[in-house]
Design brief:
- This is Pyridoxal phosphate homeostasis protein.
- Residues 27-213 form the Alanine racemase N-terminal domain.
- InterPro entries: Ala_racemase_N (IPR001608), PLP-binding_barrel (IPR029066), PyrdxlP_homeostasis (IPR011078).
- The protein is of the alpha/beta class and 226 residues long.
- The chain has a single domain, classed as Alanine racemase (TIM Barrel).
- The protein is built from nine helices and eight strands.
- It has helices at residues 2-7, 26-34, 45-54, 73-79, 89-102, 125-134, 156-176, 191-196, 206-209; strands at residues 16-19, 39-42, 61-64, 82-86, 106-111, 141-147, 182-184, 201-204.
- The strands form two sheets. A six-stranded parallel β-sheet has the order 2-3-4-5-6-7. A two-stranded parallel ribbon has the order 1-8.
- Helix 5 links the parallel strand 4 (82-86) and strand 5.
- Helix 6 (125-134) runs parallel beside helix 7.
- The chain starts with a helix and ends in a 17-residue tail after the last helix.
- The mean pLDDT is 95.
- The structure holds pyridoxal-5'-phosphate (PLP).
- Residues 20, 22, 43, 65-66, 187-188, 203-207, 219 line the site of pyridoxal-5'-phosphate.
Length: 226
């Protein structure tokens, strides 16, 4: 991360590392916390809730980064501190209702499908600005920026195109709602390029915690060969 910041003349402090801990057991996360990691990112809400209960004695910031079905919104709203995959008004409504009941707020990133692959969640780029215009009505949601998963491809030009598109969309969205400020993009395989293209948050799992036993298709249905 420091190298990528230096290459792009960005202060290292401008880019936040969000460790992604899916499949990493709670007892290992205790060691991570002892080593200074204070925020854990999870893709699946049940897994996150289980770890949260197991680690309730530790002050941890929970970040939910994966697609959330509306019927699981209430569970996420109970304890999540930030959510990176907001992609529908129904979901925004369900989160907002539960947050209001609990007197909580939630930092959110709006997910955009920048790769034009139908295996991924997120709003179509054309649907983004109308969606941004609805955000003020969800008073418990604190919009922070946009999030994307780049194309799963060895073609780095294609990957970079996804990051550039998200940045351009962020610039447009920020003119409608200045709270849309950050870019959540970049994972183990592409975080350096994401930083070069302006990422403010990189979501990194395997490069920190080692290879996952589950294939990526478990998280992104429809994906083949990953
Ligand atoms: C798992 C995951 C990541 C991190 O992927 P790694 O390959 O482990 O770095 C980032 N974003 C989301 C949404 C994820 O589900």
């Amino acid at each position: 991360m420091a190298d990528a910041c230096a290459r792009s003349s960005r202060p290292r402090a401008d880019v936040r590392l969000q460790p992604i801990t899916k499949t990493v057991p709670a007892n290992i996360l205790r060691f991570a916390h002892a080593a200074g990691v204070t925020s854990f990112g999870e893709n699946k809400i049940q897994e996150a809730a289980g770890k949260r209960d197991a680690l309730s004695d530790l002050p941890i910031r929970w970040s939910i980064v994966g697609h959330l079905q509306t019927n699981k919104a209430a569970n996420a709203a109970r304890f999540a501190d930030e959510f990176h995959a907001l992609d529908s008004m129904r979901l925004a409504d369900a989160l907002n209702a539960r947050l209001a009941r609990d007197g909580r707020t939630l930092d959110v990133y709006v997910q955009v499908n920048t790769s034009d692959e139908d295996t991924k969640f997120g709003l179509h780029p054309d649907a983004l600005l109308p969606f941004i215009d609805t955000l003020p009505r969800f008073e418990r949601l604190r919009p922070r920026g946009l999030m994307t998963l780049a194309a799963f491809s060895d073609d780095m030009v294609r990957v970079r195109t996804c990051f550039r598109l998200l940045r351009r969309l962020r610039d447009e969205a920020a003119r409608r709602d200045s709270r849309i400020a950050e870019l959540s993009m970049g994972m183990s395989g592409d975080f350096e390029m994401a930083i070069e293209e302006g990422a403010d948050v990189v979501r990194v799992g395997q490069a920190i915690f080692g290879r996952r036993p589950t294939p990526d298709s478990h998280y992104w249905p429809g994906l083949v060969g990953a």
